[in-house]
Design a protein that fits this description.
This protein is an alpha/beta fold. About 50% of the residues lie in helices and about 15% in strands. Bound molecules: 5'-O-[(L-methionyl)-sulphamoyl]adenosine.
Length: about 525
């Protein structure tokens, strides 16, 4: 047997300066859907998320909260870890940058860079934004603020530098040779022109505070939080033990999923650090867009945070996951609104998919003795519907491999629409009297279509998909994509449990009152 191909996917690690909001959960849910898809598709998945716990921003937040820093980061990190159950996450590991395994890993990477003469000691004099944890040149400031709008402060201190300037040409060659390294394409072009504009050496240590990983052999310095944070991706893969089975299995990562605001760190600094240390860069960095509320980025500093668990309580987990991945073409920004959410829940989920399953399963319960009906000979229309559902995996896989979640879902909903048209055209309720054998065939074709659709719905809406599969008595070990084909079709005569709706309509409280 050939070994399953690994798929290593990561979220950014989240700053623990504040509790999770919907922007964080968005990235993690997207990675989770991808991880679930790849597992069902037979890949050996490693899905990593975690928390970024060092640096000035976090230290300041701890001081503001009046807590000891380690106790503060322990507490806030736990809030991120606690999202696992309520958000239906299936990460295989959760990394914290304050863990010993990570400290060892970053310090080893540092030593490697020093040994290769990629790091030297100098003095940094320039602007720093604590909110962005980023250095800015005078020329980048706009009205005295960072280009992101964040306040900056003047910093002048001894600092180690990474020879980033020496990596310009090698980075450009790397982007050229790996056209899919940065997606979407428009973002790739931005990065390429940034690098073409020339790179300055990067300050990679700080001396004015202590909350970080000490620089080996020079403990007056702590490492710049970004070199520390980015290294988490190799720590979790087993670095510095590059000969370990884990490292060889996982590295290079298949995908770092990030928001567009942190693309430069991932697509410029990170591959340069890695190449400089003799380690292969990741295969892809995908930069998604932002959720906005009334046109403004959702963030703590703007005070318009949407609390993920409140959203799930109100709308349901599958509903929230589906909305996030379907509403906005992945990569674009999206504005968050209650009416858009309700539109997706009542339209796509309740009316289209939920109603299809509900209609078919209750007809089977009533008219076929609650057993999978026995089909007669299939006609061209029956076969066409089954083939459409059968062909979906290839289409969806193609989209998922380039993180086009919305396109995968659109393709799936096209088949759902086709199934609904088939129900209307075949009118099985009328066949009940005129041609019960044909009714059985039609209901069988529909139940089998639902089986395929529900298997494919698991990555994005795992709860509802599982309930649908329970209702058509599909065994738990027969739910992966290897079971999509006709060889694993529903067996006529199988007893089915009583059907229940899986995608309820959302009714606004005011509406339900009136
Ligand atoms: N700690 C760094 C990442 C280090 S990765 C080696 C960081 N943390 S963060 O908590 O500020 O942001 C984490 C991710 O959340 C980023 O990818 C960011 O783009 C994303 N989002 C934060 N607010 C967001 C929205 N309003 N919408 C979508 N994603 C956003 O940066």
């Amino acid at each position: 047997m050939t070994e399953a191909k690994t798929y290593y996917v990561t979220t950014p690690i989240y700053y623990v300066n504040d509790v999770p909001h919907i922007g964080h959960v968005y990235t993690t849910v997207a990675c989770d859907a991808l991880a679930r898809f790849m597992r069902l598709d037979g890949r050996d998945v490693m899905f990593l998320t975690g928390t970024d716990e060092h640096g000035q921003k976090v230290e300041k937040a701890a001081i503001a909260a009046g807590e000891e820093t380690q106790a503060f980061v322990d507490r806030v990190s736990q809030r991120f870890r606690d999202l696992r159950g309520p958000m239906g996450l299936t990460n295989d590991d959760f990394i914290r940058t304050t863990e010993a395994r990570h400290r060892e890993s970053v310090q080893q990477l540092w030593r490697e860079l020093v040994e290769r003469d990629e790091i030297y000691l100098g003095t940094y004099a320039g602007w720093y934004s604590v909110r962005d944890e980023a250095f800015y040149a005078e020329s980048e400031l706009i009205d005295g603020l960072a280009p992101t709008g964040a306040p900056v402060e003047w910093v002048e201190e001894p600092s180690y530098f990474f020879r980033l300037s020496a990596w310009q040409e090698r980075l450009l060659t790397f982007y050229d040779a790996n056209p899919d390294f940065i997606l979407p394409e428009a973002r790739r072009n931005e990065v390429v022109s940034f690098v073409k504009g020339g790179l300055l050496d990067l300050s990679v240590s700080r001396t004015s505070f202590k909350w970080g990983v000490p620089v080996p052999d020079d403990p007056d310095h702590v490492m710049y939080v970004w070199i520390d944070a980015l290294t988490n991706y190799i720590t979790a893969a087993g670095y510095p033990d590059t000969d370990s089975t884990d490292f060889r299995r996982c590295w290079p990562a298949d995908l770092h999923m990030v928001g567009k605001d942190i693309l430069r760190f991932h697509a410029v600094y990170w591959p340069a650090f890695l190449m400089a240390a003799g380690i292969a860069p990741p295969k892809r960095v995908y930069a998604h867009g932002w959720w906005t509320k009334d046109g403004r980025k959702i963030s703590k500093s703007l005070g318009n945070v949407i609390e993920p668990l409140a959203l799930v309580d109100r709308y349901g987990l599958d509903q929230v996951r589906y909305f996030m991945l379907r509403e906005v073409p992945f990569g674009n920004d999206g504005d968050f609104s209650h009416s858009a959410m309700v539109g997706r829940i009542n339209g796509d989920l309740a009316n289209d998919f939920g109603n299809l399953a509900q209609r078919v399963l209750s007809m089977i319960a009533k008219n076929c003795g609650g057993r999978v009906p026995t089909p007669g000979v299939l006609d061209a229309g029956d076969q066409a519907l089954l083939d459409a559902a059968g062909g979906l995996l290839d289409t969806m896989r193609e989209h998922m491999l380039v993180q086009a979640f919305h396109a995968a879902l659109v393709a799936q909903w096209r088949v759902i629409a086709e199934a609904n048209r088939y129900v209307d055209a075949q009118a099985p309720w009328a066949l009940r009297k005129t041609d019960p054998d044909r009714m059985a065939t039609v209901l069988y074709v529909l139940a089998e279509t639902i089986r395929r659709l529900a298997i494919l719905a698991q990555p994005v809406t795992p709860g509802a998909a599982a309930r649908m599969l329970d209702q058509i008595a599909v065994a738990e070990d027969a739910r992966d994509f290897a079971h999509l084909g006709p060889d694993h079709a529903l067996v006529p005569g199988t007893v089915l449990p009583k059907p229940e709706g899986v995608f309820p309509r959302y009714v606004d409280e005011e509406e339900s009152v009136s």
